[in-house]
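User: Hey, my collaborator sent me this sequence without any context and asked if I could get a structure. I don't really work with proteins. Can you help?
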Amino acid sequence: MNLNRKLTKEEEFVVNELSKCRKNPVFFLEKYCKVITDKPVPQPFILYDFQKTKCIQSWLKYDRQIIVKGRQTGVSTVVAGYALWRMIFEEYFLTLAVAYDQIAAANIIAKIQLMIDNIPNFILPKQTIKNKLSVGFANGSEALALAHGSRKGRSFSPKLLIFDEAGFIDGLEKLYIASSPGLSKTKGQLIAISTPNGYGNWYANTYFSAPENGFYSEKIMWYEMAERDKAWEAKERQRLGDRAFSQEYECLAGDTFITVKEKETSEIKQISLSEFYEQL
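Assistant: No problem. I've predicted the 3D structure and written it out in structure-token form, which is a compact way to encode the shape of the chain:
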């Protein structure tokens, strides 16, 4: 083989594209990944601005991030793409996706596999593992889906640990403690995402204790998706009711405290959101 020969145009293209993808996850996701939309076939993954700034850019900077989000903002899909990017361009990169049950955790794997199925071969390492609960490549990188359970975290040393809908995972504090030594060993990253689900659980305590606890926090609201306007909001409020809309889209749980002013006495006080709606 003549190592000094000039590359063909096709070879130059491959080298340049691989370099761009390796350096820039947004470029990789938008040019080579596809996702499920309302269209009949998978579509190119065009990221919203908040998905670039509050998700990708933050994940590149912080090793512990916790996100509170409105429903259907695509964050789980973005974290699946981010995991895949790291799996392709880093050897022996282990991702663990944990959710409140195995079906929910497997959904992250399904998102990753859909992207793999639509990426050209010159980008991908050879795929060696493909099933509902795991995907893997010949470079040693792998992603696994796990249901909640504190003992499961002790068996692995992931480089990326994903808690999906973390506010709904029972016993998450024990799992976090169990998985921490593995993350420390690999200098790994933890990303926790969820809609709110009350107070007193690991997810809520961690979110409201940031950044003093070492976590970087972000909030993603429904209106950060460009197609969601006042007309969309009115329709969803009518369909769900104000209370459910507040929890599902405005990142407010029923026991979230809000400040109100009594109409008759002008007294300022704090009451829970659930108490507020009971008085309406």
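In plain terms: The first strand starts at residue 34 and ends at 35. You can pass these tokens on to your collaborator as they are.
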